Amino acid sequence: MLSEQTVMSALVTERKMYTALTELLETTGELSEALSRQDQVSFQLYLGMRQDMLNQLAECKAILKKQCAELPEKEGNALRGVLSGETPEDDGVQRLADQVRRNRELWQKAVLADRLANQRLGGKKSFYAGKRPHT
Q1: Distance separating alpha carbons of residues 119 and 123, to the nearest angstrom
Q2: In this structure, which CATH number among 3.30.310, 1.10.3480, 1.10.10, 1.20.120 belongs to the domain 4-125?
Q3: pTM of this prediction?
Q4: Is the model's pLDDT at 88 over the cut of 90?
C-alpha cells in the first residue's frame, strides 16, 4: 500500500505534466497554424516553446522515476504500476490513476497533432513517413 504522501507527491507531478501536455497541445496547434501561414518567425517561436514543454515533461518523468527508485521495492513497484497505467488495488490511489489516464490521453492527442504538423512540413521526408500511427 502506498502512503498518502507518496500518492500526493506523484499526483502533484502528474498534474504538472497535465499542464505541460495541455500547453504542448496548444503550442503544436499554433505551430501548425504558423506553418499554414508560412510565418517562419512564429513557427520558430512556437517550435522553441514546444521544446520547453517537452523539457518540462522530461523533468517530471525524471522526478517520478527518482521517486519510485527511492521507495522500498514493494512500494516502488506499486507506484511504477500505477504510473504505467495499471489498475490500482488500493482505492486511495484512484485519483493518481485517473490523472495518469488523462495524461496518457492528452499525450496521444499531442502525438497525433505533432504527426499531422510534421507530415505537412516534411511530406515524404517527415519523421513519420511510412510509420503507422499508434493507438
Answers
A1: 5
A2: 1.20.120
A3: 0.86
A4: no
